[in-house]
Amino acid sequence: MSVGEQPAGVDNSTWSRLKTGKLVPGRTLDLHGRTAQHAFHALQSFLHQAHADRVRCVEVITGRGSGENGGVIRRELPLWLNLPPLRPLVLAVTHPHAANVGSVRLLLRKPK
Predict the structure, then answer these.
(1) 60 contacts: CB under 8 Å, gap ≥ 6
(2) In what order do the strands lie in the sheet with 27-30?
(3) Contacts of 79 (CB under 8 A, 6+ apart)
(4) What would the DSSP string read from start to end of 40-100?
(5) Do 62 and 102 contact (CB within 8 A), yes or no?
(6) Residue 107 in contact with residue 56, Cβ under 8 Å?
(7) Global pTM?
(8) Half-sphere exposure (CA, 13 Å, Cβ side) for 66?
(9) CA 101/CA 87 separation, integer angstroms
(10) Do residues 81 and 38 make contact, with C-beta atoms less than 8 angstroms apart?
(11) Fewer CB under 10 Å: which end of the chain, C or N?
(12) What does the alpha-carbon distance between residue 3 and residue 101 come to, in Å, rounded to a whole number?
């Protein structure tokens, strides 16, 4: 899974609403300013709880970070989302606005 690419299983209408920021997040997690290890554990807890509570869309703020490729958390987030504990929870990921690369919106899978 990568940020900003429409995955199979997400219809065009839902993808458009997610990508343009019109799909309002039910919860928000602000990770910027945390260490990578602390941010990963917070993300894991946040996503598992949101999924259990049947929240469909969440926003994760990573911050822009410094440097050309952004900060550590922003660079690591796509890798973390593809790890076995989190991959089954997330259906799609995108930036809610092209000018704001310091946050992402996630469309969570429906619990079974």
Answers:
(1) 28, 29, 31, 43, 46, 77, 103, 104, 105, 106
(2) 27-30, 57-61, 103-108, 90-94
(3) none
(4) HHHHHHHHHHHHHTT--EEEEE----SSTT--HHHHHHHHHHTSTTTTTTEEEEE-SSTT-
(5) yes
(6) yes
(7) 0.87
(8) 1
(9) 21
(10) no
(11) C
(12) 10
pLDDT tens, N- to C-terminus, the chain (112 residues): 678 788 888 889 998 888 888 889 999 999 988 999 999 999 999 999 999 999 999 999 987 766 666 678 888 999 999 999 999 999 999 887 666 677 889 999 988 7
- Identity of the residue numbered 82: N
How many Å apart are CA 45 and CA 4, to the nearest integer?
Answer: 23
